[in-house]
Specification:
Layout (H helix, E strand, L loop, with lengths): L1 H19 L4 H25 L1 H11 L1 H8 L4 H10 L1 H13 L3 H19 L8 H14 L8 H12 L10 H21 L1 H11 L9
Helix pairs in contact: 1-2, 2-3, 6-7, 7-8, 7-10, 8-9, 10-11
Length: 214
């Protein structure tokens, strides 16, 4: 912002000097404004070159992100809970059941386990990914147990499972994304505001962002 303002004042100064002369008040005002913005621009660059200044600027521009992170309200923090926090998952699972989202959570976890198996057991002749995928589809989607998925999503998955060209590991990608977004907005944010969710977040992560070094 300061750089653009400085450039504008320089152009204005040149134009006024040409039309009004170097000693005209308006020409001098434009010159003074250009110098003022140049000083601010240089000060900002010096500030950003300093490590503490960089952190302060980062905090200023990403304040909302850090505020949400401190409260555990980022989508990636829900992902971490689901895949790497057994104690947190147990609490969240119970909360999902209370909110009538237990099936959504079960589907998301089943798909995640399936994708892991597709990666870890790619060379295992006893593992049949397409058959596993069909079982997940029958258990959760064909019976419409997962109600937040659309007909279009279910039809695409059904068509992919019938095709030998589609990679089974990716077949549930869209459905899992929809379910995750539902869990995040309809359950996880409420979970964080609940007594058990608040205690979990405080115990697992603390409540304050890291401090800036002095």
């Amino acid at each position: 912002m300061y750089k653009e303002a400085m450039a504008f004042c320089r152009v204005t100064e040149v134009a006024r000097r040409k039309e009004l002369g170097a000693e005209h008040t308006l020409t001098k005002d434009a010159h003074d404004d250009a110098v003022r913005f140049a000083c601010k621009w240089e000060s900002l660059q010096m500030f950003l070159e300093d490590s503490v200044g960089q952190q302060l600027e980062d905090r200023r521009t990403n304040a909302a992100y850090y505020a949400d992170a401190a409260l555990g309200r980022l989508p990636e923090q829900l992902t971490a809970l689901l895949v790497s926090d057994l104690a947190g998952l147990a609490l969240f699972s119970s909360f999902c059941e209370q909110r009538m989202h237990g099936t959504n959570l079960a589907f998301w976890l089943a798909v995640e386990r399936f994708k892991t198996s597709c990666h870890d057991r790619a060379n295992d002749p006893t593992f049949h990914p397409r058959a596993e995928a069909k079982d997940i589809f029958k258990a959760f989607l064909k019976t419409q147990q997962v109600k937040c998925t659309t007909v279009a999503i279910r039809n695409r998955i059904r068509a992919s499972l019938r095709s030998d060209r589609a990679d089974p590991a990716d077949v549930f990608e869209s459905a899992q994304t929809v379910v995750f977004n539902t869990l995040y907005s309809s359950v996880y944010l409420l979970f964080l505001d609940s007594p058990e969710g608040s205690r979990w977040h405080t115990d697992a992560h603390g409540a304050t962002p890291p401090s800036i070094p002095s």
